[in-house]
Amino acid sequence: MSTQNRNTIKSILKLKQDGIPISMLTAYDYTFASIIDASEIDIILVGDSVSNVFSGNETTIPVTLNEMIYHAKAVMKAVQNALVVVDMPFGSYQISIEKALENAIELFKTTGVQAIKLEGGKEIAETIKKIVDAGIPVMGHLGLTPQSIHQLGSYEIQAKSAEAQQQLLENAICLQDAGCFSLVLEKVPATISRKIAEKLSIPVLGIGAGNGCDGQVLVMHDLLGLNPDFNPKFVRKYVNLNSIVSEAVKKYNEDVKSKDFPNDKESY
Ligand code: KIV
User: Fold this and answer.
1) Catalytic site residue from 67, 106, 170, 186
2) Is 58 a domain residue?
3) 3 pLDDT band (50/70/90 cuts)?
């Protein structure tokens, strides 16, 4: 498989420098990663949202390092063009800097992804620095950080007050200084994400963070309309795959029951 033209952290940075919006989308398996990669998405994120959309958990907290490795390996088999980033799951980088580095190396080495993502600000800056110094590119994640959902209390918009916005800006600068090559801003007001994107030299990718970011990220299942019960304002559903799949499966069921399937052409 040729990966000669694969995006790199440098080519992603150049997109920001050239004023070209950056696209990022999640993928968790080989088949969808192949489709997404062929669609010229710049970055594929093996997100810990796999915990919700694949495993059916209520939060991203339960997903394990081994599960992230399993999904990242499947995605990597498919991808030829996009930069692939994988989330470090909750618990894999909080115990100590040494443990975080050990887990980051395992994730990086066993999957072949080009970068990893960690949630948090100043409190993990030293950890990020250590991982970056070891040669592993790191993407930061601020604003609504789903691994801290029980501390945040809800999935509401973050950084609404002037004080919280100042803190967000300081955390963003701190992550850039720690060596992050890019940053996700989740569910924060459009004005503050625009300001941060203008202030930072690294690309800022928004999800529910308005149009002033250097790029956008969505969860694949949301964009494809797979869950009719998840309808936050920031999601644009490009297709209603839930009803398309449901119709197809209903039709198949009917055809089996009526003995219409398989017909002669579909038999040996
Ligand atoms: O896990 C994930 O899908 C993410 C995106 C929401 C950025 O972190």
Assistant:
1) 186
2) yes
3) confident
